[in-house]
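Build the 3D complex.
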Amino acid sequence: MNPVAACAEFAATLPHAARIASIHDEAEDTRTFVLRLAPPVPALDAACPGQFVMLSLLGYGEAAFTLAHLPRAGAASGTVTLTVRRVGALTRALFACEVGRPAGVRGPFGRGFPVDGADRPTIYVAGGCGLAPLRSAIDGQLRMRPAGTPVAVLYGARTPQSRILRASLADWRARPDVALFETVEDAAPGWRGRTGVVTGHVAEAVATVRAERAALCGPPGMLREAAAALGAAGLPPDAIHVALERYMKCGTGLCGHCYVNDRYVCRDGPVFSYAELLARPDAFGAGEAPRA
Amino acid sequence: MLESRAPVDRIRRVLALDRRVIEPRPVDGAPAWVATGGEGAFAWSTPAPLAGVKGWLVPLREAVLAWDDRGTMRPVVPHPERIALVGLRACDLAAIAHLDAHFGADPWYRARRAAAFLVGLDCPQACAGGFCLEVDAGPFARAPFDLNLTALPDGRVVVAWGTAAGVAALHGAGVATAPVDHATALLLAELAARAAASFPVRSYVTRGLARMNAAPAGRAIADEEWQALGPRCLACTGCTSLCPTCTCFTVVDQPVGAGGTRARVWDSCLLEGFQREASGHHPAPHPGDRVRRFWYHKLSRDFAGPTGRLGCVGCGRCDVACPGTIGALGVLAALGGER
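Done.
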């Protein structure tokens, strides 16, 4: 092997050096971190909705996060936006970081949501933190769609306080050309929106915009029920796109952690069509096979 | 073809001039891979060691990144020792073909693989617990070897070369090979047939593999069967450690002072935490779920790589390692209705 070429090959695996540029509280235990890369990385600037990066904190390791905002949806070049819930060792360390702290970013990885089809009536279904990966898909379609293309956003959260991306929610709520359905499981006094899980509102949201396709992100139980409800509402399985999550260590199809039957979520996903998931009984976990 | 076994020892000594020659030798009564320096005669009849050669190509711990006190990151570029693994059985070569396909684009693997010279040795008969024949991985070797040896009963050796490096090694040792004549070709075919006939009839292996590969993939076998096998797995990871095709790893950061190292370390999909997510969601919460996935990965055609062969090479090491009874043959016996 040519030694110079070999060194370049190893260097290409390094995380891109980044610094935390801003931190924004979204909800209890959820924050949005904007990282700045200098100089910008063209591949990250060109990332698609639904693709993910491996965020690196030296000493704590790496973890996979889906990009929550993208230059193609209006974010600044050279920025990486991640909306993160504090649930594990790395995210605890991240929440202890202040602006200016160095970090590393590898990616983008995986197959995101389809970037074509902005002219088709679409429903986005998100649960909890799952709204973050969908945000750039939603904003992307709103930027690119022919005027009048109907878009519905169905967002379910545990409580009104646990809702994230409230600025985006307020923006979509204010737009007459976006049908926003918000629901919470535990309503607080004064909550005027819907209640219950998202599944109960799928049929109405689909009918409102005559949705022809759907994009989903959220916890596995919600994905399973919502995808089945979308199917029952008449959407064909290949028009329902589901973002899966799995524990990952490499992001490149080598470490083996993120398997779903014969697929790796990092390499073959994380976005799969529901038609693909119907053929893979472990899509939402063992014993939780997708329902036709 | 070589007229005697002596030239093989010359090849080993020449390989040892610029490589560490590692070969099976008996150590305290059990075969092990030993750095011999090519000294002495090749131990033709030493059985395949229980520990394979995976660790030379995919180390138990591989540092991939280091950082200093200013947080500057650099890749850890390996400088693997040049080695010659002499006496690789067909199963181990089939496993290396599997590793080549899996890690083919990985620079760490490529560096170690490029530093390894592979000499195969055909098995004249089935080994105890080996079922390479049933999974199309032996007992006679196929690529990827640099050289491959078939010992003939009359003392001659058929040597095959698979790479330019193999040809160069023959030339470097001054070994002249005669073409295989018609009679020897017939003898080779007879030896291959005799080797194949030496395998015990295990119809449950065929039945188990057929059930595993009935469409749709893996679902001809009821979940209850896997859940019944689950408690028999102690999650000791003996099988995944010894399996020559197991490739899963985790990544750990090890701070040292103000700097540190990030390393890949062998992992096992049979461990409870392998897929457990920080949120608490667990896609494979029961031992039976993990046992199912492990054997699906080994025995299903869904994971046949470019070689078209299964992830299991029939070496039988997992059956030896398992403190219970769910090595490959144990599982195939259960799936094939033998017990």
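The mean pLDDT of chain B is 94.
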